[in-house]
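A.,

Following up on our hallway conversation. Structure tokens first:
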């Protein structure tokens, strides 16, 4: 991997995103709107929103980045752009890490906006430091980016890429503790939840909501980073230059 090439890929992706106003709106505005919608739904039961709000701050960046990245990467491959890029001195990790850096930068803005709306406007009760809240949001988004890059190798069309949502994302949302606390799940499902990356992302947010101690938060962040790096490595191993 060459840092200069990796940064060039990241700048290229950010330039494309800047010109794509719809995608930017989806990345930056949609998580805030969804938070506001749920606050409105639970306006008469604020304790419910305080319980699920931290989990949603972890889920929304993960969900949105997975969707956008998987479709964008497939579009690069099916349009022949990726094949042309590989005629230059660029490795697979250069491409994948460049994408991760670009979407990570967008994720920093996304996390700051979502946290500002949730804590500042919607009065979500969080005890941990706001800066760490943004860090967790960025890591969650990078995880979604890494998994999106990985699964895009197995799709031939954008419709197939979207089909990975119920296969990869929805089970993690169901088992992460948002609907039912993990300790109340059947033993087998609890064991499965413990090895899913979104579970640790949600745990990090929930620890921020319940305690001022940051040790457990950093542990969870480290685990999520490990999952993201593993997904990037798998993505580099399975990345195809074009869709046949």
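Then the amino acids I'd put at each of the 244 positions:
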């Amino acid at each position: 991997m060459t840092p200069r090439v990796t940064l060039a890929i990241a700048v290229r992706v950010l330039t494309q995103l800047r010109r794509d106003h719809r995608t930017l709106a989806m990345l930056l505005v949609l998580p805030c709107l969804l938070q506001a919608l749920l606050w409105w739904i639970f306006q008469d039961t604020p304790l419910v929103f305080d319980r699920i709000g931290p989990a949603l701050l972890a889920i929304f960046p993960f969900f949105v980045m997975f969707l956008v990245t998987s479709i964008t990467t497939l579009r690069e491959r099916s349009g022949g752009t990726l094949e042309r890029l590989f005629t230059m001195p660029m490795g697979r990790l250069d491409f994948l890490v460049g994408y991760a850096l670009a979407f990570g930068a967008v994720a920093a803005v996304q996390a700051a906006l979502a946290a500002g709306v949730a804590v500042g406007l919607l009065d979500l009760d969080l005890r941990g430091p706001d800066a760490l809240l943004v860090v967790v949001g960025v890591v969650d988004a990078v995880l979604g980016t890494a998994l999106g890059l990985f699964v895009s190798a197995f799709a031939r069309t954008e419709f197939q890429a979207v089909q990975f949502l119920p296969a990869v994302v929805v089970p993690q949302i169901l088992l992460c503790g948002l609907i039912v606390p993990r300790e109340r799940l059947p033993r087998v499902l609890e064991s499965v939840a413990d090895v899913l990356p979104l579970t640790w992302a949600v745990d990090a947010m929930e620890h921020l909501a319940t305690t001022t101690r940051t040790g457990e938060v950093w542990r969870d962040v480290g685990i999520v980073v490990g999952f993201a790096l593993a997904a990037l490595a798998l993505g580099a191993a399975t990345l195809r230059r074009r869709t046949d």
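The chain has a mean pLDDT of 82. Curious whether your intuition agrees with the design.

B.
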